[in-house]
Specification:
This protein is of the alpha+beta class. Helices cover about 30% and strands about 20% of the residues. The protein has helices spanning about 30-40, 50-55, 60-70, and strands spanning about 10-15, 25-30, 60.
Length: about 80
């Protein structure tokens, strides 16, 4: 199991998909410092609560939605 403080993170992405439709709900970008301030300790390692994540970071949803749709268009 890793410990969060042992990771050398410059940039982190949190991407959430809808459970039922698999549609991209949102994507957020965090610096390593922002992420360290958002995570909570957990028995199995650091945990990033979604409510806390959703209220922070830089919204990059449009960029990821565009990339996700482009990948879907490559099928077949």
């Amino acid at each position: 199991m890793f410990q969060f403080d042992s990771l050398d993170i410059d940039l982190a992405l949190c991407i959430r998909f809808d459970r039922e439709t698999n549609a991209l709900d949102w994507a957020l970008e965090f610096t390593g410092e922002e992420l360290r301030n958002l995570v909570s300790p957990h028995a199995r390692g650091p945990r990033l609560p979604m409510v806390r994540a959703r209220r922070s970071g830089i919204d990059v949803t449009a960029k990821f939605r565009s990339a996700y749709e482009a990948l879907a268009g490559m099928k077949g």
